[in-house]
Amino acid sequence: MMMRMLEAGGLPVLIDHIRTADDDNPRGYYEFEAVKRTKQDPSWLEGSGGQAVKMVYRLLYDLPADRDYRVLFMRRRLEEVLASQRTMLQRKGVASDAAADQQMESLFRRELQAFYDWVPQQRHISMIDVDYNRVQEDPLTELARVRDFLGNNLDLAAMTNIVDATLYRNRAK
After folding, report:
1. Domain region containing 145
2. What pLDDT, on the 0 to 100 scale, is given for residue 171?
3. Any idea what the Cα angle at residue 138 is, between residues 49 and 133, rounded to 5°?
4. For the chain, how long is the longest CA-to-CA vector?
5. How many domains is the chain partitioned into structurally?
6. Which 8-state DSSP code applies to residue 20?
7. Which pLDDT belongs to residue 20?
8. Residue 23 carries which DSSP code?
9. Model's pTM, two decimal places?
10. What is the DSSP string of 59-88?
């Protein structure tokens, strides 16, 4: 959702269209496969300045420190993330259970804490949390924070038009 918002707001996005829309993400994935190999080959970064690219947080560790990055860290209620993962696994025929969810939640919380401890030590990374749930509830306020952080003249009205409540399916109960 954030990548689509940034694009609608006028920020160029770096995507390759390899992973196409499906039942889990009907608007597409807005991904760029080369980011997965950043540690081995960061050459994709050349010429990518001023563009948005989607990365899972674990790949941020691999970004070279020879340039500056602004990171929008999308936060969502963990129980909703787990529900979404469970749904995707079920579509693929993989069973999950409550014990596995609890174990995953515990692991994820530890990993996030380690990440949050690491980020302030990285001079080349500036980061803000963007609350997915607040974007759903009050997109204008949350996206104004994004615009201000990026120091960009993004079109907030176009960005807020991307919010689609029908895609917010795995809500916390």
Report:
1. 2-167
2. 47
3. 75
4. 46
5. 1
6. P
7. 82
8. S
9. 0.83
10. GGGGS-TTS-EEEEEEE--HHHHHHHHHHH
Written as one letter, the residue type at 141 is T
- Contacts of 131 by beta carbon, 8 Å cutoff, 6+ apart: 75, 76, 142
Percent of the chain with pLDDT over 70: 87
- pLDDT for 16 equals 94
pLDDT for 22-72, tens place per residue?
776 777 789 999 999 999 999 999 999 999 999 999 999 999 999 999 999
Flag whether 123 is in a domain: yes
DSSP element (H, E) containing 128: strand 125-131
Structure tokens at 46: 């050349």
Q: Would 172 be classed as within a structural domain?
A: no
Domain membership of residue 159 (yes or no) is: yes
The DSSP line for 135-166 is HHH-HHHHHHHHHHHHT----HHHHHTT--GG
Structure tokens at 110: 């530890």
Task: Tell me the sheet residues that pair with 129.
Answer: 73
Both tokens assigned to 136: 């759903």
Residue showing tokens 């960005």: 159
Q: Is 60 a member of any domain?
A: yes
